[in-house]
Design the sequence.
């Protein structure tokens, strides 16, 4: 028996729209919203053959130079939180630090998701400044400098680069909200 991810995403979208008013729909079907100096993402995925999980996460810091001290910090802080944990991934020689909380989606209650959103958003917003001060890199809101622009004629300007790799915060061209109005990628 397969998992109906479309139905679960719609359920999550409704909860987010009611709670937050407006969220962005990412190209991969996940949702996101800004909170303080961070951006929180909510994704739905399969678990085993017939279950779903909901992942609430924020990329707290990007382009952090790798160091034993940074990895020790992440390892010793990883489970120091009631909801969520720290993690790190290395991409192109730089470290991206994330704060994530994952819950079973099959029996998800709106209040459970709202609590997870609050915990991830507030913790990520607090810890990103500490990580930057200790280890460098940048927080979510600090975009990497754009490449030099070349003069373009007869074509629209290229979009600015996303502040985070593989987690674009750009809204999709258009999505339809529950009341069938065009929303330009926002719900």
Sequence:
């Amino acid at each position: 028996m397969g998992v109906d991810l479309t139905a679960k995403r719609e359920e999550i979208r409704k909860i987010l729209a009611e709670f937050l008013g407006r969220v962005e729909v990412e190209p991969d079907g996940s949702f996101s919203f800004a909170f303080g100096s961070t951006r929180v993402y909510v994704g739905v995925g399969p678990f085993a053959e017939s279950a779903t999980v909901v992942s609430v996460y924020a990329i707290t810091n990007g382009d952090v130079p790798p160091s034993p001290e940074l990895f020790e910090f992440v390892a010793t802080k990883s489970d120091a939180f009631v909801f969520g944990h720290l993690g790190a991934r290395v991409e192109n020689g730089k470290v991206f630090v994330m704060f994530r909380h994952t819950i079973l989606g099959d029996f998800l209650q709106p209040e459970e998701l709202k609590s997870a959103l609050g915990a991830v958003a507030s913790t990520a917003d607090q810890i990103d400044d500490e990580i930057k001060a200790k280890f460098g890199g940048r927080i979510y809101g600090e975009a990497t400098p754009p490449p030099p622009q070349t003069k373009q004629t007869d074509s629209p300007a290229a979009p600015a680069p996303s502040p985070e790799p593989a987690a674009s915060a750009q809204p999709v061209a258009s999505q339809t909200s529950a009341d069938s109005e065009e929303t330009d990628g926002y719900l």
In short: Residues 145-187 have pLDDT under 50 and may be disordered. The longest strand covers residues 51-64. Residues 110-135 form the longest helix (26 residues).
